Amino acid sequence: MGKIFLHIGTFKTGSTALQFDMHLNRRCLLENGFYYGDYFDNYYLHSNLCYGLLREALVEEGMYEKYKSHPRFLHVAENPDDIIANISKHSLENMNIIISSEAFFADAFRTLVGLHTILSVQEKRKINTYMRKRLKELLFSLCDQVVIVCYLRRQDLFIEAQYNQYCKNIWYSDRDESLPEFEEFVMCNPIDLNYFTVLEEWREIFDTAEFIVKPYEKNAFRKDLISDFYTDILGINTEEVNYFKKIDRKQGNHRLDRDILEYKKYMDIRNGKINQLLIQYCENLEKVKDYAYFNKSERIEFMERYYKQNAMVAKKFLHKGNGQLFENMDYEIPVYEGLEMKKVRRITQWLLNELV
Q1: Region of residue 232 (left: phi > 0; alpha: psi -120 to 50; beta: else)
Q2: pTM
Q3: What is the mean pLDDT of the chain?
Q4: Would the pLDDT of 303 be above 90?
């Protein structure tokens, strides 16, 4: 057996596009010695494995009964042992294996339980620790060389993108709630942004694994994230990658247009069909426009919370003596000017035409 490349995310770092690209190029990857398969077919990532492990963890902690009817357990989670057995069965001898799910990083349980659910540090740590130890046991049953790959996005840009994603597809446990304002979303600490702490927890368990940590920003890649993953991470020849199929731009997980996001809040839309139509509206736009949710001073203050942790990530995982994790620290991001009534009328008219 070759190496296992475990791509753990994070969210909002181009993972959906990368995963669909790997699904599209399964044959090309096989020809280059990499197996990508036995994932959840609807989205082409290993959420079946991730939520299978989460189910085991919740059973272990006596918490499963409360969440057993969640769609991720009813329709996504599979037996982790079965998934690994299938990977072993279908991958050839000495072949490398790729496993990918951004929910592995730290937040599979957090995104399951709802925005306003208060979880103790101990609760989250117990569940994450169980999942990682079990995952280690499963992966090392296949081979003894594991490479953990993680892309990190600047925290202010990450939380803005995550808020947009939440408004696009609200978490299942919050489906009957009105959309929160951005300030409320941030205060609920929906995602763990202390990257160094989380990576150290991973390293503590996967103590013999190789870690590849990269900032998610343009100047970190020769071309783009997908090409970077194939060439820099997997080591596939650039000329070979040029023969890979190219995904359609719509295959990525794109943001809501800001006018649509504000329209959803303004109209308090909770109906699933209308929500899907609004996503379709965005997909038909020539360009999806988004703007800052922080003002400049709020952005600077927010990033100051993570200055020390980011410096430790840069030094320990990227071996950068200057402690600079992100090269692009531009805080001059255009501010949204508000939802105009003429745009409300235009969107409503389009929706009515589609519905009628």
Answers
A1: alpha
A2: 0.95
A3: 94
A4: yes
Cβ neighbors of 39 (< 8 A, separation 6 or more) are: 19, 23, 45, 46, 47, 48, 49, 100
* CB 43, CB 19: distance < 8 Å: yes
294-310 exposure pattern, b = at least 16 Cβ within 10 A, e = fewer: beeebbeebbeebeebb
| CB proximity list for 342: less than 8 A, separation 6 or greater | none
Question: What tens digit of pLDDT does each residue of 156-195 get?
Answer: 999 999 999 999 999 999 999 999 999 999 999 888 999 9
The single-letter DSSP state of residue 206 is S
Q: Which two tokens stand for residue 289?
A: 């426009």
314, 324 contact by CB (below 8 A): yes
Q: How confident is the model at residue 250 (pLDDT cuts 50, 70, 90)?
A: low
pLDDT value of position 215: 97
Strands (E), 157-218: 210-215
Query: 34: which strand partners?
Result: 96
Q: At what angle do helices 258-267 and 341-355 cross, to 10 degrees?
A: 80
Query: What is the chain's percent helix, strand, coil content, to nearest 5?
Result: 55, 10, 40
Q: pLDDT digit string (tens) for 13-23?
A: 999 999 999 99
- Cβ partners under 8 Å of residue 198, min gap 6: 105, 106, 192
Cα Rg for the chain, rounded, in angstroms? 21
Under a CB-based contact definition with an 8 Å cutoff, are residues 151 and 10 in contact?
Answer: yes
User: From CA 219, how far away is CA 243, in angstroms rounded?
Assistant: 24
CB atoms within 10 A of CB 46: 28
CB count in 10 Å sphere of residue 216: 21
Q: Which two tokens stand for residue 148?
A: 């953990």
Where b means 16+ CB within 10 Å and e means fewer, 250-277 reads ebbbbbbbbbbbbbbbeeebeeeeebeb
CA atoms within 13 Å, Cβ hemisphere of 263: 25
pLDDT for position 252: 62
